[in-house]
Amino acid sequence: MKLVRRLLFAGLAAGLVLVLSELALRAFALTSAHETLLDTDRDLTGYFDSDPQLGWRMHPGAYPEDPILRDWEARWGTGADASGEVPTNHRGFRDEELPREPPEGQARVMLLGDSSAWGSGVRRRDSFACRLERLLNPQESSPRPVEVINAATPGYSTYQAIVTLERNLDLHPQGIVVYNMISDFGLGRGTRDDVFYHDWANRHVSFLGKLALFNTLRELLELRMASPAQGDQVRVTFDHYRENLESLVRIARQHEAWLVFVVPPVLEDLSPRSSAGDLDFQVRNAAEAQAVRNRLAGSRDRDSPMPARGSYRCAMSLVGWEHDVPVLDAPGYFRTVYFRDPQDFQGRDALFVDQVHPSARGHALLARLLLPALRERLYGQQ
Predict the structure, then answer these.
(1) Is there a domain that residue 12 lies in?
(2) pLDDT per residue as tens digits for the range 297-325
(3) In total, how many domains does the chain have?
(4) What is the arithmetic mean of pLDDT over 243-247?
């Protein structure tokens, strides 16, 4: 009888510990293995919430302090003008609150991407999402004929773009702009995104999958098992990157939405010594498509922990050509504009605030590049 009581007491004590641990994890939102593993902006972490499927999302109702913008404004003495800033909406987007159903006659375009699309380094009004919205709505009216929804989030890869799109299809986007690449070939700090995201839809279906304690232990175990074997690798291999783009195409087409892909530019593209492999990625016909397939199939990047940027650009161009999705060559466009007069893009007038994030002037170029493609799909005209 004493043994039964002891076992019963031990069971109750263990159950109490588990319940308290579960409540503590939920109440204090301890950092998940996703956030420890994946490369988010350390200075922005206070504005992220843990998310069991995305890893992290922007905290609703926040005015995130952008250290890249702060440093840029301090460097050039441009001053901190916060006019036009809005708190992140309830979905965590750097955008105004949006009704679920668009007003009658309004078209919605959703932007997916990472910190460059989110607008790190620029004020919200200067981001290409806001610039596009103004260009597409030249006359003040309510509601706006075209709403450009900035659903980008710092650090997001194409895996997270898929989740973001599927979660927010209730906003009924008519078009989708995909600006994901740089975070995909960022270092994964010991493992790749597919360890976490390939089965995101199934992870939380079971009873155990809904428990914070179970998910935390599972993630830590996966991290422990993956790290020694893999070391530092890109977050998304270009094979998975290609598959993810195809998934975005499939989801969009299922919901009768069109897409536009944008190849993100980086500062290195403006160098006269830029790698030809990084710049030669366009696919315009069947011969070029086959050449790109051969290049990807025979690439040493397949076995490299740090593949070249050009492989990802080729993958995006190939998926675009195969699925009739426009692929906008932002690196080429930036080079064309820049080399007309390089001296015109120095100092505070530079096209980038750092190695990867466009400046306000760079965002203006991106908006100008995107505008004809969006007009053609929205109105059938350029």
Answers:
(1) no
(2) 876 655 555 567 888 999 999 999 999 99
(3) 1
(4) 96
